[in-house]
């Protein structure tokens, strides 16, 4: 007889040690399982008595509460992985393996046109203060690389490989990928590090000796930490306003913008998958709204702004 709480704790260890999932992914799995545990407690069903009908009843309960198809799909993914683990490690029947994912409407993420990107970057160029230059560098990097917001704010100085012209990105599950940088972005980064970076933190804080020298650092409670996602968003929102762009844009929208523009330039989906760090090709297939005629087999490595 297996105790549900015990096997859930073992599963958490499995996620962190063997699967090496990212922190946010781990927390999502934990929340999903806690919700499932709560449901089982309410209907007084133990681990050994769980059947497929038990899970479908749980999912129907969530749907009736207004949970959308995307969130339901994540719950199903969690339960499928959990019961696969139980089957392999504890020989408990995998009652979740045949769960069917709900159909998700594929809405194209909001993105900026290349003209709007130019408009945005021109607005970013106007603020010549140290923080203004820092915000400009962040904006340029977001669009030049298509990195996730968390990947950007946690980026360290040594991830910029000036000798090779690449930036090393540490993505989900600590997986690394190398992204080429246009020459003008490398020059901007060098200027930022040599002339702007030293002015952004008080001299009495020896930020050169901290364990991780973050590329975009800030002082929080007298401690040097990476700039927060909220600070990044506030900086971008200010530049959007100055550029006169009224679309509902987030920092993540620049990632979608790059993906769209690269496909317009001739990139194929497999190359885009590698660049953006997606595990599954299906994740980037949403961008095929551009039309098959624009998606050619040879990936044009030249970034839209590389010739500057």
- Domain module tally: 2
Across the major sheet, the strand order is: 1-2-3
SSE ordering: HHHHHHHEEEHEEHHH
Low-confidence spans: 290-302
Describe the structure.
The protein has 308 residues and is mainly alpha-helical. The protein has two domains: 4-90, Tyrosine recombinase, N-terminal domain (DNA polymerase, domain 1); 114-294, Orthogonal Bundle (hpI Integrase, Chain A). It has eleven helices and five strands; from the N terminus they run αααααααβββαββααα. The chain has helices at 4-19, 23-43, 52-64, 69-90, 114-124, 130-145, 149-153, 183-196, 229-243, 251-265, 269-276; strands spanning 160-161, 166-170, 176-180, 217-220, 223-226. It has a three-stranded antiparallel sheet, with no helix packed on it. A hairpin with a 4-residue loop joins β1 (160-161) and β2 (166-170). α6 packs across α10 (251-265). The longest helix is centred in the first third of the chain and has 22 residues, at 69-90. Residues 290-302 have low confidence and may be disordered.
